[in-house]
């Protein structure tokens, strides 16, 4: 896989709205401790992170759903582009969506980002593994298994697996949808560096310096955050689910959108090809190391929301959300 293909990593921003569903609980808004980061969403108290939640009495599982590279501070991309929050909650699964985390990989960074003059250090691993778990515990959302599930897409696919692997007392299930699951593969460090600059060129959003995240390419923190390298930390998870498409477009709605916006195919195909290569490598790594996991590898699939929506419901049908 060429560096030109991989450079597209995690930069998809297409917005396609999926259909509605009946009988769904209303969204709740929480504010949780930000582990020292300033409040980024409007209306919250100082040093807080906004969370959107759909819960229903009697639901037997709770899943944390993480956002992609260009996460915004109003609501999660999951809420912008799908109805998985209310629809899963109506089917027995509480859904919790932290808001924000732009380019963060939901990790604790080494230093403040100097490209965007951030002025503070990202502490998203702390937010998810401590503040959010604490808030869910106070609301008694663990369910019969006593543990939570976590799911990420694109940028956060690797994050979900690493957070679960490092926090098995709190998480027993982890899923990656179109994630990049071998971050230290040849060319990947350079590709992620480029991917964190591209938004400043095509979307008017800030570039960020990957060295501020996990340090220079030779830093061991890259290895610490690579699911391929940390495969044995996934051992013991009750459910491990990985999904990726082929880079081939499908669905009438998506094809119509491609005609209207050719960037969907120009970005979405190489993005998914990169994810496919690394997710299949992780699949082989998990099999070699005898780490049980579930897969969903559809023949069609771009790096885009309708496919991630499909992957969520495939995970549901495979029993990923069962307590």
UniProtKB/TrEMBL annotation:
Keyword Phosphoprotein carried by entry: no
Annotated organism of origin: Gordonia humi
Keywords on record: Acyltransferase, Signal, Transferase
RNA-binding as UniProt keyword: no
A GO molecular-function descriptor: trehalose O-mycolyltransferase activity
Pfam family of the protein (one): Esterase
Domain of life from the UniProt record: Bacteria
EC top class, as a word: transferase
EC numbers: 2.3.1.122, 2.3.1.20
Signal peptide extent: 1-23
Protein name in UniProt: Diacylglycerol O-acyltransferase/trehalose O-mycolyltransferase
